[in-house]
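To close the chapter, one final illustration. This time we ask the reader to focus less on the individual chains and more on the assembly as a whole: which components sit near each other, and how the overall shape emerges from the parts.
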Amino acid sequence: MNGNLYHNRTAQWIIYIVIFALLALVPFVFDNPFTLNQYARYIIFSLTAVSVSLVWGYGGILSLGQGIAFGMGAYGMGATMQMQFQDPESDPIPSFMLTNELETLPTVWEPFWSTPIGLTLALGIPTLFFLFFGYMMFQARVAGVFVAIMTLAMLAAWYSVVYDMQPFTAGFNGISPPLPFEIFETSVDPYSSLAYWICVAALIILTLSTKFILHTKFGLIVQAMRDDPERARFLGYNVAYYQTVLFTMSGFIAAIAGILWVMITQYVSPTSMEIMLSISMVIWAAVGGRTSLLGAIIGAFLINLGQSYAGDEFRATWLIILGVVFIAVVLFLPKGLTGLFEIIIGKLSGSNNGARQSG
Amino acid sequence: MAILELNNVVKTYNDYSVVNGFNFSVNEGELRCLIGPNGAGKTTSIDLITGRQKLTSGTVHFDGKNITKLLERQIVGLGIGRKFQVPAVFKELTVRENFEVALSEKRGPFQNMNPFSKKRGRKHFNRIIELAGLGSRLDSIAGYLSHGETQWLEIGMVLMQKPRLLLMDEPTAGMTEQETQKTSEIFKELKGDHTLVVVEHDMSFVRSIADVISVMHQGKMLAEGSLSEIEQHPKVKEVYLGTEGIN
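The assembled structure is written out below.
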């Protein structure tokens, strides 16, 4: 469009497809189940970074509460997997409930006997919650740093709820379903290529459809609202409506990530709603480049890969390293690594039209 | 027939009244200049018309319809466009994208997700770009435009919406003489097809475009009339620079 190949949409789609193809081929490279499981986790974190990129990078809504949807999805999936293990006749109540002196299965757990209903709830409840929460915030025109504060406070509230409701959530210990997730009479071993591919497929489908939607006029309008919501409002747009839709979409993506997380780890605990995790999601997106979905994916992947490999030797200092990287990116590369890439490509293709956002 | 009518409009903050019983009406097709010293309540009046602020009392009618209590976007939907005092454009988007967003025939989020929707209104689109004189800057990022170009971009964006009434808050603020000249040409071209209310400080600009001038002072209408009438008006002289009059 303006000479910089970085902004060429065909080139963008090609890069996306190449990266996704590489991710899909990982099981052929590493046949170590442990490594494969690690990579599946990075894929899931990438998905949360995509949700941050969508809502923050494109919509200007700095949500520190992505963990709400992630955690709700995770608990929904945890309950579903737990009930797959329970037997309605001989063993209807999960053992952690028995130790918490519950004698009957709580009503909120009943629907999870059915896997389809359980999955629907695991996905539907966080999505509806984001719809409701987003509507409350945006119709009151909460913006900027106040969104960050409200989402953070809401996350902290939910964290306390799952932590304290021990008979229902197993509290601090969390729920560890004894068997892998089973669907269509197939058991999805967390260490298998199948589990990995499910995660990659979710990443590909969600990222590409998000990119597709962002390439429509809707994407242009939300970016306009990010730059100047007042101007958009006086062009006749219902800013709150758009923001709510965008926020709900990001909640939906984070919820799927939460569901996959439990499929891969067979464990869910309040850590899924810890503030540190939600802030990390923002850091991944920021480092990779929040105005690019692929940038966010790469950011999440690189940081988590770095954490795993540096982790053992630098366990104590990892947070400091991450903090320094984050500050460096904020100071020198406001658009993250993709911004750097954009500048380089721009120089190579002889365009000095300045940096701008793109898919 | 009056397209815009303000009746006894009052806006107070705590005990301090900014607009205090303001009566104002504009006829269809007119170009009205609204002038007045700083703090007279001009921008506040524009805010009250467009719904950005709510009236303490009084009514605003547009085309016979009471719009006093409507939301901003509903008022926009009826055909009132507004340019802000500090130019407001989408700084990270290109000029073309700014215009695309402004050409809002469909305003719902889901309608705008349809990738196959036909781009309509291209003739109008190109005409406005030509009018704003930004044909060569379409692929530039709006944040890199000069101040004058930013003002034209915003004027063009408002025009994209084909508003029946345009409210322009200081369109020439910060412009060079040539830029002001060009802006007055744009306005002369708009006159007749559109109804315009222009809030302005620059008297030479007002002279070059105005039919009727309204003078606001301390939240009230002070005087209204043609340029010469206003220039001779003793109260206006008093308000502006003591007794030296408008210069």
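The mean pLDDT of chain A is 88. The two ends of chain A are 13 Å apart (CA to CA). With these observations in hand, you are ready for the problems at the end of the chapter.
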